[in-house]
Task: structure prediction
Amino acid sequence: MEQIHEMADKLKLLSDGTRLTILSLLKDREFCVCELVDILEISQPGVSQHLRKLKSQGLVKEDKRGQWVYYSLSVDVPPYIRSVLEYTPNSKTILTALNKKEITSVCE
Result:
């Protein structure tokens, strides 16, 4: 039963469109919080809150570089989550849908 509860907790995270979008973006490359703020057009605390939840379930990892924190998809993402992400759009499609040009790191 523990495995089912763990799976349910992780899948609950994917029920939020913003978190699913973040994971979909991260399957292609790492992003800094400031880039995600620009893409998603939500506040930095809002993005950070979503990332904190994803990190707490082991779905994303962070890499601190100076004052910036970069996030990427964790290598330990369970296969059932990877399966879901196979059906989500890639970052180029997401950026086009959000009327965003290709994002280059603005955090450096």
